Amino acid sequence: MQDSKKTKTQLIEELEKLRTRLAVLEKENGAESLAETSGSSRPLRRKLQAEIKFIGDFGLLEASGVNLSEGGICFEMEGEIPFELEFEIDGQVFEERANLVWMGQGEKSRRQLGFKFVPAEESETSGLLWLHKELNKLDKLNGDP
After folding, report:
1. Separation of alpha carbons 78 and 80, rounded Å
2. How far is CA 42 from the centre of its chain?
């Protein structure tokens, strides 16, 4: 049936099915996500195969409980959760400051974390990642694994 002869409900149902199918195909193929379904654009994503080192740049955090079950707890907090990240792409090492913006369950016991980079002009690194690397060097010199 031609789109012009379909009802609004039929068109909406078809669109929802197409969006669901597209999401499945993008996940299967690791395709770049061009835009959110709401119509607002977001930066292009590309596959990344890199080892990432990261360290939290925060002390004690306080939160408010949302719900509790026998198996776990959900809570929320205000403010940012800052981290320092280091990764290498095509031989170039990047050190970035970023805030944790989402977490999700991956396959099996894996977790997925989403970070938003903090623009360099807005932040300095705390040096925690550098300190961690220096301490590892000392451990190796002292014979620790």
Report:
1. 7
2. 14
